[in-house]
Amino acid sequence: MTTRYRMIQVGTGGQGNAWCARFLPANIADGRIEVVAAVDTNPEVHINAQQHLGLPPEKCYTDIERAFDENRADICSVVVPPAFHEAVVDIALAHDLHIISEKPIADTLSGSVRIADKVKRAGKKMGVTMSHRFDQDKTTLRKELRSDRPGAIDYVVCRFTCGLRNFGDWGAHFRHTMEEALMIEGSVHHLDIIADLVDSNCESLYAQTWNPKWGEYGSGSQGHVMMTFENGVRAIYEGAKTNASGFNGWAHEYVRAECEHETLIMDNRRIERFPYRPKQYSREGQGEEIPLLEQSKWRNEWLIAQFLDWLDGGPPMATNVEDNLQSVALIFAAIESNRIGQPVKVQEFLRIAREKEERIRA
Questions:
Q1: Cys-Cys link to 263, which of 122, 197, 274, 329 (CB 3.0-4.6 A)?
Q2: Rounded to two decimals, what is the model's pTM?
Q3: Which class would CATH give 5-132+299-320+351-361?
Q4: pLDDT band at residue 51 under the 50/70/90 scheme
């Protein structure tokens, strides 16, 4: 039996508008969510909640404390820049709410660890919307890799390249002024996708990030990452925001999985298989196309439904905040690797961050 949950939407501009216009309505139509209020510090974007969610102006707030005090709710979203996630989580927990948040958990590993710990101590549930992992093409590729047909995975290559080099090209301006924009706002999805496809935690990684002179970013608009996983699989990642031309942008990433019996290629939402053929060469476009899986919800719509299923007593969603620390650890280990010019052991890196926060809290 499903429950209808009262929700406060925190963030109605930028990605928050996408929540209002696309992600929430399908779950509202299913009778699973009732949005009782919305919050954004910019009153001009309240119109998004009013138009798409049917909220009256008096239920749209610039003061988050007032919104939470005046509206009884069960859950809240966190759709604000990562640097403000922890403050919203603190208010939500103070009001005894479950939380579903945009990625990453926070803008630092220490903040992410603190949030996961606070949620656990409060006895609440928090999910993180790693939307691209749950897109149609990645889900189809994941199913193929989990089947017996390809055999063991040897290594994975992932490419994400964009021509968004000018200020404002990548949507919200904070992405152009923050440090390590690619890793925190982009690669957080792609490294997460790689780890999910290989079905293992990352053991170590080596990364380089940089910003070419023509990239109008604070730092780190380009990056390369080499990864080794605990199950022995290796991966190579190329990420770029400031190329002359983009070839594999958002939702159109390139992934090649080299397996024992097959090579699987996903490119611009098309997946094909190339069985082992000794002493022969193949070209992309000549393989056997794999039909994409079909279902009614993908990405954030599907993740919101998974979160609600979890609240209804189902198993924890795959991107629950505790498990999602693995994804956050990847991007901050990559940033650290670039800083020190050496590989980073990811699990040790995460363990040290946890222990440091435990000492501070004690």
A1: 274
A2: 0.93
A3: alpha beta
A4: very high
